[in-house]
Amino acid sequence: MSEDLNNGKVLNTRMVPFRSLALYMIFWGVSVVLFHIITDWMLVERDATLSRLHLLSEIVFGMGSGLVAYGLLARNSVQIKQLKAALQESEDKFSEYVEDTTGARVLERKLTKRVVEESEQRYRSLFDTHPDMVFSCDLEGNFIEANAACVAVSGYTLEEALHHSFSQFLYPEDAPEVKYRFQRTIDEGEVQHYRCRIVHRDGHVILLDVTNIPIFVEDRVMGVYGIAKDITDEVHTREEFAETKELLESFFASTTDAIYLIDNQGIVCKVNEAFERIYGWSAEEIIGQNFSLLVPPGRQEEMRKLNEHLDCQEHLTDYETVRMRKDGSLFDVSITVSVIRDQNGQRVALAGIGRDITERKRVESALREIEYRYRLITEHTSDIIAIYDQDQIIQYVSPRVDQIFGYSADDYIGTNNFDHLHPDDFGEIMERLDSLYRTGESVRIVFRQRHADGHYVWLETMVMPVFDLHEQVIGLVVIARDNTERRRTEELLRKSDKLAVVGQLAAGVAHEIRNPLTSIKGFAQLMKNRLPEYNHYLDIMLSELDRIEFIMNEFLVLAKPQAVKFVKTDLQELLGDIVALLETQAIINNVQIITEYEDNLPNITCETNRLKQVFINVMKNAIEAMPDGGNLRIRTERAGADLVRVRVLDDGCGIHPERIPKLGEPFYTTKERGTGLGLMVSYKIIKDHQGDIRFKSRLGEGTTVEVELPIIQDSKNVLTVGDVG
Ligand code: ADP
Ligand code: MG
């Protein structure tokens, strides 16, 4: 636009001379005519000269006034030009201004629109995201709009709720009140605030805190806004809290334990009834007093330590101590103390619970006394007493196990001992225990349990159940007696029965056999001399006959008392003779005989030859048990005031623990050429001497035979034997 304007200016400037000339001509013409008219009017009827002069003056005047007009015009044209430019400029400015002002109005309109939109948006987002339910209703109470919280709280979708009356969502009982409030909001234009219940879509009841606000349009209520908050949980929690508080208070009042609060200065602030009863102070008397009044004088230091403990530990649980009543009497109490802190973590008070344990202490000490007595009995009885818990684990076993099994009580505690039982007895033990658990009745079980050195000890046990208050078996008490001795006696009886039978048989048979045997032997001897070509066979016959004769002689030992004589004998000498006798056999078997005799052993009264037979049998067995050689030790020692003991130790093959009871039975042998009579005869001889013979053995490690003999024989016995002789 401004460019066009400029072009216009250039054009006007160029045109000025032509236009001015034309104007000049016009002005000139007009001036001449005017002058002529005026002069004509003034100079009517003048002469010719005057007419020519007149014409000239007319021309001069015309030219002069034309020139003046032109000058004026030229000046005017510049002014016009300037005016025009100014006009143009102001026109430009104006249009610019107009332009500007129109833009601002548009902008203003836009701005206003944006503000409206924004506030609308703000309203919407406030509406939509408000955590409380926000809704609006028309005058009939139908929902017009509702926010997300309405959906979340009620469980209904917007489609289900909008354009429906609020009354159909109400808890029926509350409907009249809510409708009344709604109507008031509309009629009076009043804000209403109240609580009501609605029913969730899934049926549960929700408690709401509701505000109704009238919507005014030009002073008329056109609808109602509602804001509602779900306070179900809050009310619930408050109710629960009140309930808990009530409970706590009733607990505080009615518990049998003393409860008290002490402030930081040690002043008692609150106590319950039980406290009054246990500590013997009424609440009025003790509240406001220092707690140290309740602590016996000697225990103030302990108090200080407890306080220190509470400073870093927060709690003190079941601490047993002594407190003092108002009358100065002392009582046992178990206390539990907790530190109470304020919000900043500062210790403000101590809460204590005290339980009177005088009675418990009394019972405990009575129990301890009873336990002590029982312990005395269990630890000194010769029986073993064991206590098992409900998992059949040993909790206690009397110290005597040590002597019977070679294990200490501690070795058994915490185990069930099953792997010490003899495998053959295990089944029966379990059966019996089953019956005990079934019937609740005690059972008697006889079984074998392993000794530390491997052999089994026979036990006769009474197993008794221990019941709890509900008649459930919660443990077992076992009283066990070492039965080995008894069984050995029984065994001996059994053996001696056998011996008696064998003896009777032998008495008859031996006599019958001996005579024919003598003839056979004599004839064989005779034939040996006569028939040298059969010597080989006859030698065998004779040696077999010797064996038969030997067996016969052994039988006769059992059959009837021999002509025996008890004499005082030096045991060392007797053993020396036997060692000399067996030396050769020992050397052949690569066995070394070592003798360890105790000095100054007294002589013993015995039947020397018979006793020799015993030691020959025992030592021969020992040598035979060491086919690859070894040591054979012979030890003598005093075994008491009236006893001596001879021990024969070998490191041969050993005897299986189960076989030991069989030793001494007739014909029990493990050797190809054995008779199984050696030990039988030995047992008999030792028995006749009122002594004892015992075997201890570990398979693969060796055997010890212990022979105990009385130093002086019972005179009756000596006499009897003498009589027989
Ligand atoms: P025999 O020697 O004829 O076999 P015994 O009555 O003397 O008969 O011995 C019976 C059995 O006892 C023997 O066969 C052997 O098995 C066992 N016995 C006795 N003493 C020992 C020993 N010291 N070491 C190993 N076994 C032994
Ligand atoms: Mg033998």
Give the topology, please:
Elements: H1 2-42, H2 48-129, E1 133-137, E2 143-146, H3 148-154, H4 158-161, H5 175-188, E3 192-199, E4 205-217, E5 220-230, H6 232-254, E6 258-263, E7 268-271, H7 273-279, H8 283-286, H9 300-313, E8 315-324, E9 330-341, E10 347-356, H10 358-380, E11 384-389, E12 394-397, H11 401-405, H12 409-412, H13 423-439, E13 443-450, E14 456-467, E15 473-482, H14 484-530, H15 535-559, E16 567-569, H16 571-588, E17 591-596, E18 604-606, H17 608-624, E19 630-638, E20 643-650, H18 678-688, E21 692-698, E22 702-710, H19 715-724
Parallel strand pairs: 17-19
Antiparallel strand pairs: 1-2, 1-5, 3-4, 4-5, 6-7, 6-10, 8-9, 9-10, 11-12, 11-15, 13-14, 14-15, 16-18, 19-20, 20-22, 21-22
Helix pairs in contact: 1-2, 14-15, 16-17, 17-18
Bound molecules: adenosine-5'-diphosphate and magnesium ion.
How many strands, which pairing sense, and closed or not: the largest β-sheet? 5 strands, antiparallel
CATH superfamily of the largest domain: Histidine kinase-like ATPase, C-terminal domain
Shape: elongated
Order of strands in the sheet with most strands:
2-1-5-4-3
Structural class: alpha+beta
Detail the poorly predicted runs: 1-16, 719-725
Say how many strands there are: 22
Beta fraction of the residues? 15-25%
* Domains, number: 6
Query: Mind telling me the C-alpha Rg?
Result: 69 Å
CATH structural architecture of the largest domain: 2-Layer Sandwich
CATH class of the largest domain: Alpha Beta
